[in-house]
């Protein structure tokens, strides 16, 4: 009987130990089936918020899954939803705790099919609101048009004193060179080295305003391609999503890029891709080694 009780105690102890270990490391499965592990051992938690800005015709569901996954893994905490009305006024739900919780802010545009110039002004309005709330700096994660408008904000406004400073921008599947596909004329390697061979007016605007981007801002470009021979994510050409890489690098803006391949690299699936989750979490919340 004593041996039986001792065995039960041993099993319970092992279960408790394994449970504690699971709290130190979050493991998920990527689009290709491999394990995608986000370490909480090196997790850096601060009061710097991250804004999640949807793309053209986006809704609360656009980044809803990613935000929920980050919360479920205890990497960050959703604290605000800011809805920008068509007239530029803000509806704010929630409040800042100003604690080191890696706060997340979901930004929604009520007129979600408006143009990127108005969205740029709306982003400025949101950043001014954050400044008034005592937020000095913020990160931005933008999908598709959300990334386009965020970069346009930076090339237009730069670093205004009355707005929270953007320190990191992550753009997911953003058509920076509009829908121009230069893959028939150049390789991705050549694009990253020299820029696009054809330049849309949107790209030219970035080129003209790139000097306004703060040099200490870091940018991560995430792009998708359906397979090894199809250089687009079904909506945005891979070359367009990476088109500003060379421009930024030439102007001393720290920039990285990564391309994802497969069904989960489809345009509307990129923000549901667990490998993308991992990359974003590492960029935002894991200290540089």
UniProtKB/TrEMBL annotation:
Keywords: Hydrolase. GO terms for molecular function: hydrolase activity. It comes from the Bacteria. It holds the Pfam family DUF915. PROSITE patterns: PROKAR_LIPOPROTEIN. This is Alpha/beta fold hydrolase. It comes from Candidatus Enterococcus moelleringii. Gene3D superfamilies: alpha/beta hydrolase. The lineage of its organism: Bacteria, Bacillati, Bacillota, Bacilli, Lactobacillales.
């Amino acid at each position: 009987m004593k041996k039986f009780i001792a065995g039960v105690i041993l099993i319970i102890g092992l279960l408790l130990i394994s449970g504690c270990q699971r709290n130190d490391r979050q493991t998920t499965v990527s689009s290709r089936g491999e394990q995608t592990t986000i370490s909480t051992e090196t997790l850096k938690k601060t009061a710097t918020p991250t804004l999640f800005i949807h793309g053209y015709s986006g809704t609360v569901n656009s980044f809803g899954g990613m935000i929920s996954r980050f919360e479920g893994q205890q990497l960050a905490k959703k604290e605000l939803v800011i809805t920008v009305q068509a007239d530029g006024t803000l509806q704010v739900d929630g409040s800042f705790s100003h604690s080191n919780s890696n706060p997340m802010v979901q930004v929604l545009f009520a007129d979600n099919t408006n143009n990127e110039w108005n969205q740029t002004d709306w982003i400025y309005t949101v950043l001014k609101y954050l400044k008034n709330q005592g937020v000095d700096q913020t990160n931005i994660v933008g999908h598709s048009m959300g990334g386009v408008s965020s970069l346009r904000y930076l090339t237009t406004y730069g670093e205004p004193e009355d707005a929270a400073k953007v320190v990191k921008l992550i753009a997911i599947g953003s058509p920076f060179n509009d829908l121009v596909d230069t893959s028939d004329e150049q390789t991705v390697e050549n694009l990253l080295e020299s820029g696009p061979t054809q330049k849309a007016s949107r790209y030219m605007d970035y080129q003209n305003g790139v000097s306004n981007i703060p040099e200490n801002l870091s940018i991560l470009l995430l792009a998708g391609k359906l397979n090894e021979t199809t250089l687009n994510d079904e909506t945005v050409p891979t070359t367009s999503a990476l088109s500003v890489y060379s421009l930024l690098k030439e102007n001393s803006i720290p920039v990285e890029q990564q391309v994802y391949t497969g069904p989960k690299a489809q345009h509307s699936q990129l923000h549901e891709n667990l490998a993308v989750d991992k990359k974003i979490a590492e960029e935002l919340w894991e200290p540089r080694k």
